[in-house]
Inverse folding.
């Protein structure tokens, strides 16, 4: 067996990558197939799925036509779930945009420091990762609460007369998501900016470009890979986020993530939850592919 | 006329804070005038302040005190993008994400010149640097020599009042560098733009420049034409930095008119012509260029000193002889190998006479 590996280069390579491949197959691809399967069968009476399985596309259809049993018969709203999808995408785009706008100058500032300061700042950005995400979200909640740190501070300074409503709304969710995902935006942009040769900015200035134009024509295009990576790394998890909207939104802000979470939890509707997960995945996939397509075309024409 | 000078540096001081917290004067009260249309070189070893001076003219650094004028206009506090100068950077700094055409057209685009006019002028610029038809190449697909020419075209296409060049040939191999030296010089004459050229290569500076400023430790030691700097160096640093020089240390014994008599410790007395006044007993160095000394060819009314050959180095065109005088001082003599006979004037260990005229050496005090 070992001899075979030694003799054959490609089988040697296979031997090296197989643990990773197996991991992905068993813990990623297989569950995905299971989920796909669950999304096309009828739900069981007490949760789970009906056994033996009965195939149906009702779960997907339900997405586009939510009907709730009422006293006077079923009441249907075709835009209920689609609205939540749209809302999630809107929050995702807003958070991603804000993370990039906030993260880029910070990443730039970090990259410009002396190595020792650079490392210190990098650790400061990474430190939050060492604390549990849930704990951090609760901590932020206590800051924004009616009797929380921020409101007490503003009240004591008499800047406001009554506590501001900072929690359990979209604002709180957006703040929570930015707080959680900003480092994911900073790190790839930092890598790009750090590699950027600053002489090119001098060259642009030398050729008559104002700082703003030099940034737009030289630095931004050259650090765009970092920005795109930040975009994907933030947008994808944020669209499907459920802990932050759940805690910071207090059940008042519905996102796809919380909706799916509910289907697997209290609603005990695994097939519908699976169907929504599949649609979310498809949506993100289409979005990312479309972005890369347009991004590369842009880079061909503009850069 | 006020605008006689392309660039004027008036008492420029540029201080930096060192990592240790001290203050370093990278450029220490330098005053220089660069004439319009001239090829002017800033020459000196690394850390002498030549690049800092250039960067201040370009607007990438601001002087701590002093004024910079470009064609009579005060520029000291004007940002780089508003100055009528362009730079060829040491590593070229071409935009790697743009084509050659976009690189060269960048400055014109910033000035708001339309696409058609731009593309016409870009191809003219490419013609000028002898790389026609390169428009659509990517900047990072070019060889070092090509990048150098593109960088030159990118700067010159803007028709700057002054072109700044920061060791632009440093990254090229020797043969290409020699070619580019001549090409740059020719190009400069053709376009008639003032070139300010930073280099640490004295031969390069001598080859190309109309005038040279030799800098050391933030100070301009001497400004002049190449032959002035070579033949009449102001001090030992300049004499040593430009070409090769023998320094013979001695004491002034007397002076009658322009004839100075100098006692070289243990070796003998030499007589050297000089227009300057010296006092008896003054410590001086007699600077003798190796090619101006002769071996075993006594000069009438000149200086003839006895010594022993210590080493002989044959380098093809010339042979270099290292001769030790009785007093212990050593000189190098360069003899051109014009004929076969010249190759064997002396061997190691031979007693020889080293001769030079009274007018060829220079007496230096610092």
């Amino acid at each position: 067996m070992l001899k075979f590996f030694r003799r054959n280069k490609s089988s040697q390579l296979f031997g090296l990558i197989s643990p990773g491949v197996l991991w992905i197959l068993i813990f990623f691809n297989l569950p995905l197939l299971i989920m796909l399967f669950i999304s096309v069968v009828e739900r069981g009476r007490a949760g789970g799925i009906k056994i033996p399985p009965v195939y149906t596309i009702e779960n997907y259809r339900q997405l586009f036509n939510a009907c709730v049993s009422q006293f006077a018969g079923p009441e249907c709203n075709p835009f209920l779930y689609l609205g939540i999808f749209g809302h999630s995408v809107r929050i995702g785009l807003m958070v991603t945009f804000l993370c990039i706008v906030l993260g880029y100058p910070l990443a730039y500032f970090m990259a410009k420091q002396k190595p020792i300061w650079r490392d210190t700042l990098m650790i400061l950005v990474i430190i939050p990762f060492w604390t549990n995400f849930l704990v951090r979200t609760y901590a932020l909640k206590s800051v924004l609460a009616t009797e929380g740190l921020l409101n007490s501070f503003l009240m004591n300074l008499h800047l406001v007369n009554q506590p501001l409503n900072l929690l359990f709304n979209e604002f709180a969710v957006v703040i929570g998501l930015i707080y959680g995902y900003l480092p994911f935006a900073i790190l790839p942009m930092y890598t790009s900016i750090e590699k950027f040769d600053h002489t090119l900015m001098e060259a642009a200035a030398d050729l008559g470009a104002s700082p703003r134009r030099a940034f737009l024509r030289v630095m931004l295009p050259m650090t765009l890979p970092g920005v795109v990576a930040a975009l994907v790394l933030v947008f994808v998890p944020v669209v499907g986020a459920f802990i932050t909207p759940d805690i910071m939104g207090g059940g008042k802000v519905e996102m796809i993530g919380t909706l799916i979470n509910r289907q697997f939890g209290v609603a005990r509707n695994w097939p519908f939850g699976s169907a929504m997960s599949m649609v979310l995945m498809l949506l993100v996939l289409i979005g990312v592919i479309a972005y890369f397509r347009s991004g590369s075309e842009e880079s061909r024409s503009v850069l | 006329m006020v605008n006689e000078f392309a660039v004027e540096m008036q008492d420029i001081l540029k201080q930096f804070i060192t990592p240790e917290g001290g203050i370093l004067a990278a450029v220490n009260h330098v005053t220089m005038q660069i004439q319009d249309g001239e090829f002017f070189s800033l020459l000196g070893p690394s850390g002498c302040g030549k690049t800092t001076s250039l960067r201040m003219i370009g607007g990438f650094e601001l002087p701590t005190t002093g004024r910079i004028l470009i064609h009579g206009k005060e520029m000291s506090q004007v940002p780089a993008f508003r100055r009528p100068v362009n730079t060829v950077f040491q590593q070229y700094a071409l935009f790697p994400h743009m084509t050659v055409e976009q690189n060269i057209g960048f400055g014109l685009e910033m000035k708001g010149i339309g696409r058609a006019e731009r593309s016409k002028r870009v191809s003219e610029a490419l013609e000028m640097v002898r790389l026609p038809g390169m428009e659509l190449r990517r900047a990072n697909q070019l060889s070092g020599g090509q990048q150098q020419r593109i960088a030159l075209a990118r700067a010159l296409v803007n028709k700057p009042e002054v072109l700044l060049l920061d060791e632009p040939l440093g990254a090229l191999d020797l043969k290409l560098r020699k070619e580019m030296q001549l090409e740059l010089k020719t190009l400069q004459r053709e376009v008639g733009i003032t070139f300010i050229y930073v280099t640490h290569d004295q031969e390069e500076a001598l080859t190309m420049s109309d005038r040279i400023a030799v800098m050391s430790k933030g100070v301009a030691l001497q400004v002049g034409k190449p032959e002035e700097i070579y033949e009449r160096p102001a001090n030992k640093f300049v004499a040593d930095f430009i070409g090769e020089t023998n320094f013979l240390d001695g004491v002034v014994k007397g002076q009658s008119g322009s004839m100075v008599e100098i006692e070289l410790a243990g070796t003998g007395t030499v007589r050297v012509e000089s227009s300057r006044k010296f006092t008896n007993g003054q410590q001086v160095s007699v600077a003798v260029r190796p090619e101006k000394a002769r071996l075993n060819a006594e000069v009438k009314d000149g200086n003839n000193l006895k010594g022993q050959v210590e080493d002989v180095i044959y380098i093809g065109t010339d042979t270099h002889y290292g001769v030790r005088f009785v007093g212990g001082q050593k000189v190098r003599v360069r003899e051109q190998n014009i004929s076969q006979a010249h190759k064997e004037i002396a061997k190691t260990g031979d007693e020889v006479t080293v001769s030079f005229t009274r007018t060829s050496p220079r007496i230096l005090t610092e």
User: Anything to note?
Assistant: The interface with chain A takes residues 58-60, 79-82, 85-87, 89, 91, 93-98, 106-107, 110-111, 154-155, 158 of chain B (CB under 8 Å).
